[in-house]
Structures are given as structure tokens and as C-alpha cells.
Amino acid sequence: MTLRRLVLLLPILLLPGCSARDSAVAEDGRERLVGLRADDLRLCAGVPNLTANSAGGEFWTYDRSPPASGVSAPVPVIGGSLSVSAGSTCRVTFQLVDGKVTRIGYSAASDLPMSQNSACAPVVQGCLRLVEQGAVRPE
Q1: How far, in Å, CA of 134 to CA of 138, rounded?
Q2: Which end of the chain is more exposed for a tag (fewer CB within 10 A), N or C?
Q3: Stated pTM of the model
Q4: Structure confidence by residue, pLDDT tens digits, 84-96
Q5: Secondary structure (H, E, C), 58-118
Q6: Local structure of residue 119 (DSSP, 8 states)
Q7: Are 114 and 17 in contact (CB under 8 A)?
């Protein structure tokens, strides 16, 4: 394989790794953000797109559609081109009871394998960063 082809295929090979990392961040957020106060959640995740109240508590929903990144590289054997897209969408819903996060649910769609919930990472990353810095503490 020539160096040029390798350079063209490298982003295709890296996309699943980045998605897997982001998926792990989302799962980490599901565990480490339970107990976060409502004000701290608003500080790190922003104002939710939707809110709802029920007997189970408050529900804050964040919808994210990050810009898709894609790579197109020629594949000489097939004679066409190979396109890989990392486009995905995510809906994160936080359940709050007595002003604290009790559960986090993800509803995500991804075009890449092994990237379940990867598009949800940006919603929780800021909160995880503040938890790691000690600026906010889940109770």
C-alpha cells in the first residue's frame, strides 16, 4: 500500500476509536453524574431543550446533533470510493428528584459500529470535567 493511500485511509481507521472513546465518556457520565444538583447541571450542560414534570420527578432533555465528519477515499479494487461518516444524533434525558439527578437516559443514533451513545458525550463532558476539578460534587 502506498503512503498516499495509507494517509487517505488513516482517518477511516481512527473514526471507530474516537467513537468508542466518546461512548465510554457517555457511560461514565451516566454513573458519575447521579446526585448532581440541578443548578450544577444547568451550569455545566446548559439550559435543556425540553423539560417535563411527572410523579417521577423533573425530566430535562438535551438534543444534540454534532456536525458530521466524513472521509472519502478511493478504493482502486472496486474502482469507486469509500465514504465513512461519523454523523449521529443524541437525546440525553436527566431525571431529577428533589433537585438532584437520579438517572440519565440516552437515545442515540450513530452511523458507526461500536459507537453507541458517542454523540451524547458532549452533553456530559463539561459536567464530568467540573466533577474531576472538584468545582461541583454529586451528592
Answers
A1: 10
A2: N
A3: 0.70
A4: 444 568 899 999 9
A5: EEEEEEECCCCCEEEEEECCCCEEEEEECCEEEEEEEEEECCEEEEEEEEEEECCCCCCCH
A6: G
A7: no
